[in-house]
Design goal:
204 residues, alpha/beta, Rossmann fold, five-stranded parallel sheet
Length: 204
């Protein structure tokens, strides 16, 4: 089975993926942040590196989904291929940080890739307010994230909400991240696990 977690930068995807993998005995697939050769350059000069970064993510996540499909066990994935295509790339394009030519080229490639893969059996969406995102980003202290602007996070949140509202690819569970301190509160984590159990029993 393929479970995926979607959510804005700093919403808690990686932390929740790790906690759920430990609880259920699932295999976790994380976003390739440390080995990403474009991230630092992108945050220094978004216009120059936006297309390169998005192509790297697209390739990385397509490879992940193919790998997940070929496994017999249940995998939980930190961020989906759809978020790049429906949130991050269009946001860069609308902000004038990716040219129309590059965006159209990117989206043609995404459409081809998405036609060859299956969506997740269950999508968990971590909905978080901008103050929560900012707090989490500051806590983890990644140097390249220091320059992320609040209006950038706000734009992404708006796109996430629009995407989730129209999401019809499979089962969806929305988790209000502001209401759950799942990294530090075991009762909060238990409540999330109960919600996931209720969804999963409907998949078997």
């Amino acid at each position: 089975m393929h479970i995926a977690i979607a959510g804005n930068i700093g919403s808690g995807k990686t932390t929740l993926a790790g906690l759920l993998a430990k609880h259920y005995g699932w295999e976790a697939h994380y976003e390739d942040v440390d080995d990403n050769p474009y991230l630092n350059d992108f945050y220094d000069d978004m216009q120059r590196w936006s297309f390169n970064l998005q192509i790297f993510f697209l390739n990385s996540r397509f490879s992940q989904v193919i790998e997940i499909k070929n496994k017999d066990n249940t995998v939980i994935q930190d961020r989906t291929i759809y978020e790049d295509a429906y949130i991050f790339a269009p946001n860069l394009h609308s902000m004038g940080l990716m040219s129309t030519r590059d965006f159209e080229n990117y989206f043609t490639l995404f459409n081809l890739m998405s036609s060859l893969i299956q969506p997740p059996d269950l999508l968990l969406y971590l909905r978080a307010s901008v103050p929560t995102l900012v707090n989490q980003i500051q806590k983890r202290g990644r140097e390249y994230e220091n320059s992320i602007r609040i209006d950038y996070l706000k734009r992404l949140n708006e796109r996430y909400e629009a995407w989730i509202e129209s999401y019809k690819l499979g089962k969806l569970l929305i988790i209000e991240a502001d209401a759950y301190d799942f990294p530090n509160n075991t009762e909060h984590l238990r409540q999330i696990i109960d919600k996931i159990d209720a969804e999963l029993h409907g998949l078997f």
